[in-house]
Design a protein that fits this description.
This protein is of the alpha+beta class. It is built from 2 helices and 4 strands.
Length: about 130
């Protein structure tokens, strides 16, 4: 394992450990399709049934944030700074990196990411 990979491996290891209590850090990956994640959102939830208390996002232009050691290092620092005891991480890209109501109108599909227009973001299956 190279030095660059240590942050990505450490992040995966934290997620694989399971639930150890609150605060919980959640990671969600987004991309124009299900192959390349160009955005990761990390939320810190302080207690059960609460909304995220802290939220940070990292973006890339064309390269996969899941394989970027610099992004992994920044995520680990964010998680440590908020003393998260548990980490939950999506095992796949779960949707478009653009935000409804911010990057495109509410109730419509993202014009930049047609891949997600008729897909269930959790299963990746095409729906009507």
């Amino acid at each position: 394992m190279s030095l660059k990979d240590r942050f990505t491996k450490a992040l995966r290891k934290k997620a694989d450990r399971g639930f150890f209590g609150y605060p919980v850090a959640t990671l969600a990956f987004y991309g124009p399709d299900d192959k390349v994640a160009t955005k990761v959102a990390v939320a810190i939830i302080l207690a059960k049934d609460e909304e995220p208390a802290f939220l940070e996002r990292w973006f890339s232009e064309g390269h996969d944030v899941r394989k970027d050691p610099n992004v992994s290092e920044q995520i680990l620092k964010f998680i440590r700074a908020h003393e998260a005891k548990s980490v939950g991480m999506a095992d796949r890209i779960i949707g478009c990196p653009h935000e409804e109501g911010v990057d495109y109108p509410e109730g419509s599909t993202c014009p930049k990411c047609p891949f997600w227009a008729k897909r269930d973001r959790w299963s990746g299956e095409v729906v009507q």
